[in-house]
Design brief:
- This protein is 20% helix and 38% strand.
- By secondary structure, it is an alpha+beta fold.
- It has 2 domains: 135 residues, Diaminopimelate Epimerase, Chain A, domain 1 (Roll); 155 residues, Diaminopimelate Epimerase, Chain A, domain 1 (Roll).
- The chain has a 17-stranded mixed β-sheet that branches.
- A hairpin with a 6-residue loop joins strand 15 and strand 16.
- The chain is globular, with a radius of gyration of 18 Å.
- It starts with a strand and ends with a strand.
Length: 298
């Protein structure tokens, strides 16, 4: 009989039941990949992260990420949830300023930022952003994401972007249109599967909130109808904005991004973009809070 420590951690929020819940599973060296997938399905959260020892001399731990239906290469909110848990409940922040996680896409450094000795946010540096073109009919796209075709903001290009996973970025004219979106999840999931897209990410600069960008994210192709607050997709969005010249390519940009309001789980991300020609540093930061602690017996 094996006992596995399991936690629920709400990421990108300081309030319980806000942000995006990650399953955090320790002792994963006791598990097979098939068991990890079964646990992720049982937890039925957008993503769960599994902590393993690393054989990489440049990393502290190895991590694997699973949705309820499949393994994915990277998950931002689960990274925040895990590293917040390690820093607080297990006291790592008392001895170190951060750790490095080995993932399927390379090593991800995470720093802990404190004020008055208390942890305030964790900040991950995502991999170098990439973008690529995608040919898509705007009318078909509007039907898939469930908005009026004139709600798509054609001042900005519709492209794919990546800081770990590929995301379809769709500019929308205002927050109201994003909140009212009612996607055809079957059609959207089929489309994303065909194009190896993890999520479809709606964003706008025209928001009622005191932030720079407001977003919403759908991922039916990987088993998630809607991901409340997405570190990976918002990191990819920031990388896209930089590479397209929509934010400064000479000065550091700090973006405050809100997400989750439409599903009653408001969250906040702080994204820093540090210029470096075509290889900017994308740093995504947020707070978290642990809500459930338990033991899974196998």
């Amino acid at each position: 009989m094996r006992e596995i420590r399991v936690f629920h951690v709400d990421a990108f929020t300081t309030q319980k039941f806000g942000g995006n819940t990650a399953g955090v599973v320790l002792d994963a060296e006791k598990l097979t990949e098939s068991e990890m997938q079964s646990i992720a399905k049982e937890l039925n959260l957008p993503e769960s992260v599994f902590l393993l020892p690393s054989q990489n001399n440049n990393a502290d731990y190895k991590v694997k990420f699973f949705t309820p239906t499949e393994e994915i290469n990277f998950c931002g909110h689960a990274t925040v949830g895990l590293t917040w848990l390690l820093a607080t409940e297990f006291g790592l922040a008392k001895h170190k300023d951060g750790i490095v996680l080995e993932t399927n896409i390379g090593n991800i450094p995470v720093m802990w930022h404190k004020e008055g000795g208390e942890l305030t946010v964790v900040e991950m540096t995502q991999v170098t952003p990439q973008t690529k073109e995608i040919a898509i009919d705007y009318n078909i796209l509007s039907q898939m994401i469930g908005v009026k075709s004139n709600s798509i903001d054609l001042e900005y290009p519709i492209k794919l972007a990546n800081t770990g996973n590929w995301h379809l970025l769709v500019p929308i004219k205002d927050q109201e249109a994003i909140d009212e979106a009612m996607p055809d999840l079957a059609a959207l999931g089929k489309h994303n599967k065909e194009h190896t897209i993890s999520t479809t990410h709606l964003y706008t600069f025209n928001t009622k909130k005191d932030v720079d960008i407001y977003t919403r994210d759908f991922a039916p192709g990987v088993g998630i109808s809607e991901d409340p607050v997405t570190g990976a997709a918002n990191g990819a969005l920031a990388g896209f904005l930089y590479l397209e010249g929509l934010i400064s390519q000479t000065k550091t940009t700090n973006l405050k991004i809100a997400q989750g309001d439409a599903v009653g789980r408001p969250g906040l991300l702080n994204v820093t973009v540090i210029p470096n020609k075509t290889n900017p540093a994308i740093k995504v930061a947020g707070a978290a809070i642990t809500t459930i602690r338990g033991i899974l017996t196998i």
